[in-house]
Amino acid sequence: MTPTAEPSTATQRPRLDHLVLWVADPAASAVFYEDALAAQPLRLAEFTAGEAPFPSVRLNDETILDLMPHTMAPRTEVFPGARTGSGHPLNHFCVALTGAEFDALATRLERLGAPVSGTGRGSFGARGAATRSFYFGDPDGNVIEARHYDEEPDAGDSSGAAGA
């Protein structure tokens, strides 16, 4: 019997598939993420019709946000210790944009009246130090960081999700 070779840790590159956010009104949250981040709603009609337990929004080809109603918290207690974490929002998540996308997001958030922090510079993330970043809140108090890594506000394409 020949042992199976373990893949090299250099080739084991997990990708973020989805995040689950606790929200009071999943349909309203889907609209917010569509308006703020141009995220594509998924299963919204099915959720509204009672055919899906929650909707999602697509951030990019590989990553979605599940918009889970608080009423589903008891269903998430599927492993020991889950009870203490179910129903609590995460600290924040971060999206990486190009400089032009970053500026456009700031403009959309101002139009939406979303709370926004001041702009920071040089915060560390998945690709090193960001050129600029800011934080904003969704209607449920979840915090999102937006950043870009470009040298100039409109230079190059560095879109995709990044963790902070």
What does this protein look like?
The protein is an alpha+beta fold. 19% of the residues lie in helices and 25% in strands. It contains three helices and ten strands, in the order βαβαβββαβββββ. The strands form three sheets. Strands 1-4-3-2 form a four-stranded mixed sheet, covered by helices on one side. β8 and β9 form a beta hairpin. Mean pLDDT is 82; it is low at 153-164.
Instruction: Kindly state the percentage of residues in helix.
Output: 10-25%
Q: How does the overall form come out from the CA principal axes?
A: globular
SSE class: alpha+beta
Strand content: 25-35%
Low-confidence stretches: 153-164
Strand order of the biggest β-sheet: 1-4-3-2
Mean pLDDT: 82
Whole-angstrom Rg: 18 Å
Counted beta strands: 10
Order of helices and strands: EHEHEEEHEEEEE
How far apart are the termini?
Answer: 44 Å
The main β sheet shows up as: 4 strands, mixed
Number of helices: 3
